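Input record, target 12 of the design panel.
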């Protein structure tokens, strides 16, 4: 028995150290440049850690050593013109498979902006939730908001959420009842205690979740022991199953908790105990189902 244990140990350590078998798609990064003449709405200059250019060349240096071969940019500005700024930035960056933009449902200009932006295959959808002082809770009761989200769904595009709360999860039930075709991606769920409505939301086949913002601060410190996070990760992955969970780093916002290496390592350790197929789905394949992104490189085509 001891000999078998000793023989198994190197294999287990190797599994922990090994990258995922496929390339990785990071479904949640932010891009911005505070050097732009008009400035940026986020982050604020007071956050000296984040207030520096966050562009694909900087991201690539951090991410590629971990097997990342593609990334989805998620909006970090409420300015409509910044959708085009991002599209222009990522047009020449093949590591970027697309963006989730920002146009607000329920506004008179929504349909026109959507028709214009969706012509670019790198535009994958919008983000709508607890962000930019918008009233999501009230919004999902308004016919004009539902009509615009139906436009989004009919166009085959995806809606990302923002900053989950128990109320927001309940609102997603109402929204997905009203727009059953909507592909919804719920971000950062590890940050909150899973609410009761989450089990019902998990029954909706068009709903995906990001295992993103896993790390948390406790008494001013960030635990780096997987055991601290495992129960919640087990619960979330158990609810949504292997086909509807996505990897997202939340870079560079994730630097508020830990460097990219550590952010990636904690989920890599968690999924090291899963099957190769489960790892491939979480780290790459599920992102195609959630976002319908188009490959730009041979490595992306191989997913």
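The sequence produced for target 12 reads:
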């Amino acid at each position: 028995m001891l000999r078998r244990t000793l023989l198994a140990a190197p294999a287990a350590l190797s599994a922990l150290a090994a990258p995922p078998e496929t390339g990785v798609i990071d479904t949640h990064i932010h891009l911005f440049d505070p050097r732009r003449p008009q400035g940026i709405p986020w982050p604020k200059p007071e956050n000296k850690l984040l207030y520096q250019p966050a562009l694909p060349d900087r991201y690539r240096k951090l991410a590629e050593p971990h097997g990342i071969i593609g990334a989805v940019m998620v909006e970090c500005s409420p300015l409509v013109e910044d959708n085009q700024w991002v599209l222009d930035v990522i047009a020449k960056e093949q590591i970027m498979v697309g963006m989730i933009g920002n146009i607000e449902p329920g506004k008179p200009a929504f349909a026109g902006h959507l028709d214009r932006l969706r012509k670019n295959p790198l535009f994958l959808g919008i983000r709508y939730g607890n962000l930019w002082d918008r009233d999501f809770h009230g919004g999902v009761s308004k016919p004009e908001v539902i009509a615009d989200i139906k436009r989004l769904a009919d166009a085959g595009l995806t809606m990302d959420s923002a900053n989950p709360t128990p109320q927001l999860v309940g609102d997603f039930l109402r929204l997905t009842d009203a727009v059953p075709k909507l592909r919804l991606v719920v971000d950062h769920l590890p940050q909150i205690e899973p609410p009761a409505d989450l089990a019902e939301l998990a029954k909706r086949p068009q709903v995906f979740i990001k295992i993103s913002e896993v790390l948390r601060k406790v008494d001013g410190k960030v635990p780096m022991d997987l055991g601290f996070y495992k129960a919640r990760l087990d619960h979330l992955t158990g609810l949504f199953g292997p086909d509807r969970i996505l990897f997202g780093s939340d870079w560079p916002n994730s630097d508020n908790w830990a460097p990219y290496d550590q952010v990636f390592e904690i989920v890599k350790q968690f999924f090291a105990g899963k099957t190769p197929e489960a790892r491939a789905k979480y780290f790459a394949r599920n992102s195609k189902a959630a976002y319908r992104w188009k490959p730009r490189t041979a490595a992306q085509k191989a997913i």
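The CA atoms of residues 242 and 274 lie 10 Å apart.
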